[in-house]
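G., before I forget:
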Amino acid sequence: MLRALPVQIPRRLFSQSAKMASMTPMEDLMRDKIAHTFTPSTLIIRNDSHKHAHHAAMEGSTSKETHFHVTITSSAFESKMQPARHRMVYALLKEEMSREGGIHALQLKTKTPAEEQREKEREAQA
Amino acid sequence: MFSRTVFSALRPISRPAPLRLPLRPIRAPAYPIPSILHARLLSTETKAAIDKAVGSAPVVLFMKGTPETPQCGFSRASIQILGLQGVDPKKFVAFNVLEDAELRQGVKEYSDWPTIPQLYLDKEFVGGCDILMSMHQNGELAKLLESKEVLVAADQ
């Protein structure tokens, strides 16, 4: 009993504080939504906001989560052209992109598992 | 903000001679419309103006800033790609969405695309900067532009 305590308490505190005040609420939300909708085999979210913080459009913005680069590999993109794939992601994140102080820029790479495989093979050859 | 008319922004910025569109100015709404609602209210005037803009040249880019001084890295990249591909300036027109809030919002709804830049080829939506970049890299863009005959002739 006594030995278990020091382990239990910090763990519970940590998980609670992580839930209450994530440093990356937007990224977490995007990850949740994308994972749920596209069940991607690859999902990479890169926050580029610091690179754009000095831009005129970001004047007055306090958010640290405005510019993202997202790579999604999902079979949900099969037999769809790139614009249609991007529109699927935009539709999913419509609220986050349209609201003031939300996502300002979203770079997208949308691939099917087969396309990702081919890309890897090409890179291996090069 | 809404007192600006579509005239100002629908002047193509890549040509010296301004294109005159026979459009009535859009009246300011009597009360402010929340941006989320505003996004769904593409007026017939704005739609007609964007129709004209999209059809004003074979290659049309809606961008932030001008080709000479882009105001956004993604717009800059798109202009550079079109330049590298050798798009004929006579067949190209760019529209600066920063000149007109109505256009900036309207074109997003018109294209069902939430970001700028946006490229149109023969009135057909091609994509934004990421799509342009990947098509540039995989050779699809060169093929597409060639098939539409919008490149500067090789012997010139």
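The interface with chain A takes residues 35-36, 39, 71-74, 112-115, 125-131, 134-135 of chain B (CB under 8 Å). The beta strands of chain B are 59-63, 92-96, 118-121, 124-127.

More on Monday.
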